[in-house]
Amino acid sequence: MSRYLTNIYDTVNTLWTGMQITFRHMMNIRRDNVTLQYPEERWPRPERNIGFNHEDYNVIRSRLHVDIDDCIGCYRCERACPVDCIKIDTIKSERGEDIPKVNHTGVTSNGTKKGFVVSRFTIDMSECCFCNLCTYPCPEECIFMVGGPNSSKHPIDYEFSEVDRKDLIYQFAKKLTPKQKSGLSPIEKKAEA
Amino acid sequence: MGVVQGDQMVLNIGPQHPSTHGVLRLEVTTDGEIVSKITPHLGYLHRCFEKHAENVTYEQVIPFTDRCDYLASMNSNFGYVVAMEELMDIEISERVQYIRVIMAELNRVASHLLALGVYGLDIGAFTPFLYMLRDRERILDMFEYTCGARLLYNYMWIGGVSHDLPKDFVKICVNFLDYFEPQIEEYNNLLTFNKIFIERTADVGVIPAEVAISYGVSGPNLRGSGVKWDVRKDEPYSIYDRFDFDIPTGTGEFGTLGDCFDRYWVRMLEVTQSVRIIRQALKDLPEGDVFETMPKKIRPPAGSVYRRTESPRGDLGYYIVSDGTPSPTRVKMRSPAFTALSCLDEVSSGWMISDVLAILGSLDIVLGEIDR
Fold it and tell me: Does B342 touch chain A (CB under 8 A)?
């Protein structure tokens, strides 16, 4: 009988202790509020230099971005990718020479002379596993993870949701018409000869 | 076959049951409400980790180890890189060692918080779950601040870590620990010493020490049975021999030694010990370059290595065979959650169906690691 009463006392007592904590949190709801009304309010994104010279970019991995003008077509990111979501095609060109008709600049911002026109650079973000392994081997530091519109250069939104899965395949290379491609091939032949 | 047993019923729990912590199907043979046999059916989350690892290079395996134990990715990474460094025989800089310990222990706290909170949810207490997830969120924020990812980090690399700590990380981390330590008291008042919770867990699902050892159960589940075994202390890897911490074991405080409450309570005490380790590591954190000792080409000599580490779920072992090429010949992962699940049948036969879920929750399994 006394055990029965002790059990009842313990239950009420421990429940009361728990309720006190809950009440205390309820009273402090304005101060301790942790819930954000999502689309209107957002968590602050941590901004931080990731070690490259791009001071403006933060460490958040939301999407891959490529500065295609700096890409030399070395395929290193494609090889580093564990899930093969990066696909690159290149056409050989005169080293370091501009080709205005396909909007190709011959020299990167680091001063490296490019030997290839990158005719295709697609990243399928639905396959990407956000491991960041492709960004480190890049010699020109032109492929990197972006997290938001923190740069005037890349006004990219935080959430990269799309209605159609096809829209998650990002094309970074400048679009070449077949005519422009055939126009490039003589250069290729000349370089080989 | 052939014999019709009228009073027996086969009940399927899962694969989409919230209490099975992932996609696990339990085929439960019941007699009334008493469980006589449980057959766990696995493989719903099988992603060919071990076979896939043979087709990629050594550094590309690390993102896949993340996805095995997705609640403690840092610890999964840690086990793999420690094994690889042993195979390649490379020395790691001091700063990297400390950063790794801090990250692994923070992730242990995060993983245990989820385990404890979800266990409360299984038993029927909703509020502690919210409080624990709130604090886990702050740990994930710190990870996000450090390496940009919240769950699957790919942070520890062979010979280094992917990002150095931010300048103000120590301050943020100490702030968090100061905030967090009083919270443990709150959890205890809210959930641990609640009479209803104790009645549901004490004396339920007792795993005697010899049963636990014979099944190969490890980690908090083994320590809950009173066996003092922790890889961090007994087979120190990385720099765990430098820190001063205790190994909490179950004492059978409210019931029998090795019951569900003991396993829960060991996790709660382990959180405190992890906080102690993090504090010591933050105090001694040296300066240095995290990329310094990273090898340019990862091509280990032909040979094999088995290294086990202490993940939040127990002994996490990696067996790596190399033939001198850039990709491994074989990667085998010894999963602690798998062995914990294997003893479920023996432990839970004779209990009621509602107790089975309490036992399953107390084992703290992660299906990503079981199926791999």
Answer: no
| Ranges of chain B whose pLDDT falls below 50 | none
Backbone angles phi, psi at B303, to 5 degrees: 155, -175
B36, B282, B349, B353 from B6: Cα distances, Å: 14, 63, 19, 19
**Of the candidates A143, A84, A155, A75, the residue with the CA atom closest to the CA atom of residue A115:** A75
| pLDDT tens column, B307-358 | 889 888 888 889 999 888 888 888 888 888 888 888 888 888 888 888 888 8
> What is the structure's pLDDT at A158?
61
Query: By the CB < 8 Å criterion, does B154 face chain A?
Result: yes
Residues in chain B with CB shorter than 8 Å from the CB of A60 are: 144, 148
Q: Which domains are delineated in chain B?
A: 48-340 (1.10.645.10)
DSSP 8-state assignment for residue B229: -
Asked if B188 reaches chain A (Cβ–Cβ under 8 Å), the answer is no
User: CA-CA distance, A16 to A37, in Å (whole number)?
Assistant: 31
- In eight-state DSSP terms, residue A175 is P
Query: Which DSSP string corresponds to A40-57?
Result: TS-PPPP----SSS-TT-
Stated pTM of the model: 0.85
Looking at the complex, report in whole angstroms how far the Cα of residue A35 sits from the nearest Cα belonging to chain B: 9
Of B61, B144, B195, the CB nearest to A46: B144
Confidence of residue A179 (pLDDT cuts 50, 70, 90): low
Q: Does B286 contact chain A (CB < 8 Å)?
A: no
Q: Is residue B191 less than 8 Å (CB to CB) from chain A?
A: yes
| CA-based nearest distance B132→chain A, Å | 12
- Backbone φ and ψ of A6, nearest 5°: -60, -40
Note the residue count of chain A: 193
Judged on CB neighbours under 10 Å (0-12, 13-18, 19+), A137 is: middle
Confidence of residue A52 (pLDDT cuts 50, 70, 90): very low
Q: How far is CA B85 from CA A112, B294, B320, in A?
A: 35, 10, 11
3-state secondary structure at position B30: strand
